[in-house]
Amino acid sequence: MVSTESFGTSWAEMARRQALVIDANPASRTMLTAMMRELGFGTVVQTSRAQDARRLIEHQRFDIVICEYTFDNQPMTGQDLMDDLRLAQLLPLSTVVVMISGEAGYGKVAEAAEAALDAYLIKPHTGQALRDRVLQAFQRKATLADIIGCVDRGAFTEAAELCQQRCDARGPNWLNAARIGADLWIRAGRPQYAQALFETIMSARAVPWARLGFARSQYQAGGVQLARRTLESLLNDEPRYADAYDVMGKVLLDQGEHAQALNSLRRASNLTPGCVARTLKFGLLAFYHGDPKEAADALQRAAVLGQNSKVFDLQGLVLLGTLQFDRGDLRGLTQSLHAMSSAFEAQPKSARLRRFEATLATLKLLLDRKIAEAVALTQQAMREIMEPNYEFEAACNLLSVLSRLHTREVRLDDVPDMLTTLADRFAVSRTTSELLCRAAQGRPDFDPQIRSRYVLICDQAEAAVSYSVAGQPERAVRSLLDCAEKSLNGKLMDLALHTLDQHGARIGNNADLSRRAQALQDRYRSYGTQVKLQHKRTSQPTIESAALSC
After folding, report:
1. pLDDT for 29-38, tens place per residue?
2. Which of 191, 223, 255 is the last residue of a domain?
3. Are residues 131 and 12 in the same domain?
4. How far apart are CA 233 and CA 227, in angstroms?
5. In which element (H, E) is residue 522 found?
C-alpha cells in the first residue's frame, strides 16, 4: 500500500475521497480501478462511456478523474469530455484530472493538457508512473489549498489577490496560481491585472494557454484589434488550438466579420466534434449568420450528444425547433417541444424555460394552423418584455416568432410599440442590434425600427459623454439614469456607473446617485446585456455576441 504522506492527508481522509475511472477497455479499466484503491481512495467509480462519465461528474464531486483519450465507436473523446466540463465550469478546481493516451494520440493529448489537465500519461505506462503522477498532482493541489478554498466559497477577488501574491513572491506552484488568478481577474472585469499575470507567465514559459489568456484580457480591456493580432500569431503557431478559435470567433464577430467568425467556430467544432459546447456554439452562430441547414445539423448533433446534460443550453433546442418549423417538420418540432416540456417540468419555477416552452408551443400551433391560439400565446409573451427577469434571448425568440407570424400575414396591432420598447432595452451594442434584426429575419417593417432605436441610445450616450467632457459629470449621470430608467438599456446603466467611478469626487451627491444606478443595474442589467452564447451555469444564462465564451 502506498503511503499517504505525499497526499498530505490521513488514511481516514483518503478513505473519504472519491475517484472516477473512465475507460472503454475492461482490462485497463479494472487495472486503473485497482490502482486507485491501492492508493487509498475509499470510493472508486468506473464507467466505459464518456457521456455516462459526464453525467456522473455533473451530479457528483470527485477528487480525481482518470480518463482515457480514445473511445472507439463513441462520438466523444476524452478531450471532448474535458472541454465540455471545463467550458461549462463543472469541474471543481480541487479535482485532479489525468488523461491517458496511446503514443499515436500524443499531440492531441498535449493539446488537451493545455486545457488545464493536471497530468497525462502515454501508454504503455507502468503502475508506478501513474502513482507518481497522481501523487505529484495532489501535491500541487495542496500548495493551492488556500486559493481553492476561496474559489469554492465564491470569494473570487480574495482568491485572485492570493494568486497575485503567490506569483509576485514566486512561491510554490506560482505558475498555476498565476493562471488561476489571471482567469479570476478576467471574470472580475479587471483585464489589466490579468494581462500582467499572463505576461509574467509568458516570460517564464512560452505556453499557448498563456498567449490565449493574454488575448482574452486584451479583448476584455477593449483592445479588439490587439487581441486579434495576438490570436493570429498564436493560431499560426498552433493551428489545432480549438480554444483559440473560440476566442477568435468572438473577436471577429465583434468586428462585424460574421462569415470569418462562423468559419472560426466551424474550425473549433471540427477539431473537437464530440464537444457539445463547441457544436452548440457553432449551431447558434450559424442560426443567425450562416446556412439554416448547417445550423440545424449542428444543433441536432449537439442536442443528441448533450441530451439530459447541463452542458447543453436549451436555447439551442428553441433554435432547432424554429428551423424545424421553417422546413415544416412537424414531427421534429413536436419532439423538440416534448423535450422542452420535460425540462420545464423538472424546473417548474424557471421563467426562462417557461418562455422557451411557450416559444416552441407557439410555433407548433402555427404549423397546426391554430392561428388564434398562437396569437394569444404571442400576445402573452409581448406583455412580459419589461419584466426584470426578461432576457435578451427571450427578446430574440419573440422577434423570431413575430417575423414568422407576419410571413403568414398575421398582423398584431401593438407590434410597433413593442418593437420600440424591446429595442430600447436590448440594443446595447452594434452586435446585439444586429442579432435582434437577424432574429427578425431582417424584415423591412422591423429592421429600420430596431436600428433607429439603437442610434437613439447611442445619441443619448454621446450626449452624456459631452456633458462629462464639458466638466458637468453630475449632469451626465443624471441624464444617463433618466434615460436608463425609461429604456432599461444596459449600455446606459454601465456608462452611468463608469462616470460615477471616474468622476465621483466631483459629484456632490455621489452616494445617492450611486445607489440609484446600482439599484437599477442590480434589477435589470444581468438580463439585459449579458448576451453570451456560453454554458457557464448562471442563474439566468443568456445569449451573446460571440456565440462564444472566452
Report:
1. 999 999 899 8
2. 223
3. yes
4. 10
5. none
What residues have CB less than 8 Å from 508, skipping those under 6 apart? 474
Q: Is position 538 within any domain?
A: no
146 forms bridges with which residues in the sheet? none
CA separation, residue 508 to residues 437, 497, 503, 518 (Å): 41, 15, 10, 17
Domain membership of residue 218 as a residue range: 147-223
C-alpha pair distances (Å), 456 with each of 2, 189, 359, 429: 69, 27, 29, 12
Q: How far apart are CA 435 and CA 431, in angstroms?
A: 6
CATH number for position 172: 1.25.40
Q: Are residues 55 and 177 in the same domain?
A: no
Cis omega before residue 124 (within 30°)?
yes
- Closest to 161 (Cα-Cα) out of 199, 188, 143, 122: 188
Beta bridge partners of 45: 20
Concatenating the DSSP letter of every residue in 438-493 gives: HHTTT-TTTHHHHHHHHHHHHHHHHHHHHHHHTT-HHHHHHHHHHHHHHH--HHHH
Domain end residue (candidates: 100, 122, 143):
143
In tens, the pLDDT along 137-186 reads 888 899 999 999 999 999 999 999 999 999 999 998 898 899 999 999 99
Task: Decide: helix, strand or coil at residue 306.
Answer: coil
Provide the domain count of the chain. Answer: 2
pLDDT of 234-287, one tens digit each?
999 989 899 999 999 999 998 889 999 999 999 999 999 999 999 999 999 999
Condensed to tens digits (0 to 9), the pLDDT of residues 364-394 reads 999 999 999 999 999 999 999 999 999 999 9
pLDDT at 109: 47
Grid cell in block for residue 423: 429595442
Contacts of 394 (CB under 8 A, 6+ apart): 352, 355, 381, 384, 385
Segment holding 96, helix H or strand E: strand 96-102
Say which CATH number the domain at 90 has: 3.40.50.2300
Question: Using only C-alpha atoms, what is the Rg of the chain?
Answer: 25
> Do the beta carbons of residue 329 and residue 339 sit within 8 Å?
no
Q: Which three cell numbers stand for residue 375?
A: 396569437
Q: Report the alpha-carbon distance of residue 321 to residue 332 in Å, rounded.
A: 7
According to the model, what pLDDT value does residue 88 have? 87
CA-CA distances (angstroms) from residue 544 to 409, 478, 488? 31, 29, 18
In a domain, 156, yes or no: yes
Residue 3 has pLDDT above 60, yes or no: no
CA dist 144 and 169 (Å) reads: 14
